């Protein structure tokens, strides 16, 4: 039979392992959220740049990174790569 002390050590090891698993899961979740936030922020900055260039320069179409943008008749920014109107 195991002594009580060995039982407590095994329980402590299981609790420590559970804490490490929870911490790793939380870290991965946070990092993936940050990556998504960074991508959205970069996309908004690219769209703002394209909008300003289209408004201020005498061009019909602008390519920023891998997206092509044009202004619609209503003055909205249209992303031809994703085929959708961008949010303001």
From TrEMBL:
Keywords: Membrane, Transmembrane, Transmembrane helix. The chain crosses the membrane at residues 13-34. It comes from the Bacteria. This is Type II secretion system protein. It comes from Lactobacillus delbrueckii subsp. bulgaricus (strain ATCC 11842 / DSM 20081 / BCRC 10696 / JCM 1002 / NBRC 13953 / NCIMB 11778 / NCTC 12712 / WDCM 00102 / Lb 14). The lineage of its organism: Bacteria, Bacillati, Bacillota, Bacilli, Lactobacillales.
């Amino acid at each position: 039979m195991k002594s009580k002390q060995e039982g407590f050590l095994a329980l402590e090891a299981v609790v420590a392992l559970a804490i490490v698993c929870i911490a790793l899961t939380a870290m991965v979740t946070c990092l993936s959220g940050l990556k998504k936030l960074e991508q959205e922020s970069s996309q908004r900055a690219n769209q703002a740049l394209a909008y300003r260039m289209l408004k201020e320069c005498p061009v019909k179409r602008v390519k920023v990174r891998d997206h092509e943008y044009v202004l619609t008749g209503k003055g909205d920014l249209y992303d031809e790569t994703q085929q959708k109107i961008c949010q303001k």
